[in-house]
């Protein structure tokens, strides 16, 4: 028997609003609906947006400063200094034991690369810089790819197609639709271009915590996933591989995620809020 997870509860004695009724209709059909906590208030959305402004400032700074010969530890220092100077906190720092302020993932590193003075950027590298910020308790999360100098046409295509995957995922997400549409659209575009989608890591709700519900898969799970309701805030952050989708975690540091075949991987990420007309970017 299929068990319904009843996330939407009505406080005792409170009359049902049209909003409640609309969500209950889905819940009674057996769909996964958000909890009340996941529907952000306008004040909370403004807080996340302000956090996103700092987060974007960090990425713009890195975009300006990144160059061949630079170490990823230097990127980490730029992130830390800028964030703190703007009254914010880098969310990765000490998060579940993560030792640095940003994730720097070069070539075959999929994500969660740890900045190091020994990792020097070289001409032709592609690198993901994943920045997450806490401002006044509000979390934002976004990442970009940077190409160091000139790279191969294949790696250039991977970076471009991954960016397109993020855009296509954004467009696939509709208010009162389902999170599963996002991964379905992303996987279709990745495969059409000969690439694969990482399955072991996903996008996520964000805002009051670093990682909240829902899970945002970037591949076709063949499930609806959670109902998308205006006011929900979450990331889309497809990791797209040139070869196999399979990945492993570096045993030595317990963080760095690497492609199984050691072929390159790319990722782009934004934080979005669902509105009555579709997704709006909070990390422009
Ligand atoms: N920024 C990553 C994300 O997109 C999470 C990194 S967790 C860390 O969800 F600890 F590695 F920073
Ligand atoms: Co994220």
Task: Give the arrangement of secondary structure elements.
Layout: H1 18-28, H2 42-65, H3 72-85, E1 89-90, E2 103-106, E3 109-111, E4 126-135, E5 138-147, H4 153-172, H5 180-192, E6 196-197, E7 203-205, E8 212-216, E9 233-236, E10 239-241, E11 247-249, E12 257-259, E13 265-267, E14 270-274, E15 279-281
Helix pairs in contact: 2-3, 4-5
2-amino-4-trifluoromethylsulfanyl-butyric acid binds next to β4.
Give the distance, in angstroms, between the N- and C-terminal Cα atoms: 44 Å
Structural class, please?
alpha+beta
Number of strands: 15
Name the shape in a single word: globular
Rounded mean pLDDT is 98
Taking all Cα atoms into account, the compactness measure Rg is 19 Å
Tally of separate helices: 5
Report the β-strand fraction as a percent range: 15-25%
Question: Which sheet architecture does the biggest sheet show?
Answer: 4 strands, antiparallel
Low-confidence stretches: none
Element pattern in H and E: HHHEEEEEHHEEEEEEEEEE
Task: Give the ligands present.
Answer: 2-amino-4-trifluoromethylsulfanyl-butyric acid, cobalt (II) ion
Helix content: 25-40%
């Amino acid at each position: 028997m299929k068990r319904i997870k009843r996330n939407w509860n009505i406080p005792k004695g409170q009359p049902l609003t049209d909003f409640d009724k609309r969500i209950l209709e889905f819940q009674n059909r057996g769909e996964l609906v958000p909890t009340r906590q996941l529907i952000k208030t306008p004040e909370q959305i403004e807080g996340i947006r302000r956090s996103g402004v700092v987060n974007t400032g960090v990425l713009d700074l890195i975009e300006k400063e990144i160059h061949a010969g630079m170490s990823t530890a230097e990127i980490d220092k730029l992130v830390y200094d800028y964030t703190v100077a703007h009254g914010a906190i880098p969310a990765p720092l000490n998060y579940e034991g993560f030792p640095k302020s940003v994730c720097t993932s070069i070539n075959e590193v999929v994500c969660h690369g740890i900045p190091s003075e020994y990792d020097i950027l070289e001409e032709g590298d592609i690198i993901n810089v994943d920045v997450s910020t806490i401002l006044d308790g509000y979390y934002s999360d976004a990442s970009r790819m940077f190409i160091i100098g000139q790279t191969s046409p294949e790696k250039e295509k991977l970076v471009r197609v991954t960016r397109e995957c993020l855009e296509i995922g954004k467009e696939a997400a509709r208010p009162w639709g389902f999170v599963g549409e996002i991964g379905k659209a992303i996987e279709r575009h990745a495969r059409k271009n000969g690439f694969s989608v990482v399955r072991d890591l996903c996008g996520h709700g964000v805002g009051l915590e670093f990682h909240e519900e829902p899970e945002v898969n970037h591949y076709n799970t063949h499930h609806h996933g959670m109902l998308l309701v205006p006011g929900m805030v979450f990331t889309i952050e497809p990791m797209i591989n040139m070869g196999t989708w399979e990945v492993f975690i570096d045993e030595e540091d317990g963080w760095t995620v690497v492609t199984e075949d050691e072929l390159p991987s790319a990722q782009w990420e934004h934080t979005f809020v669902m509105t009555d007309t579709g997704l709006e970017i909070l990390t422009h």
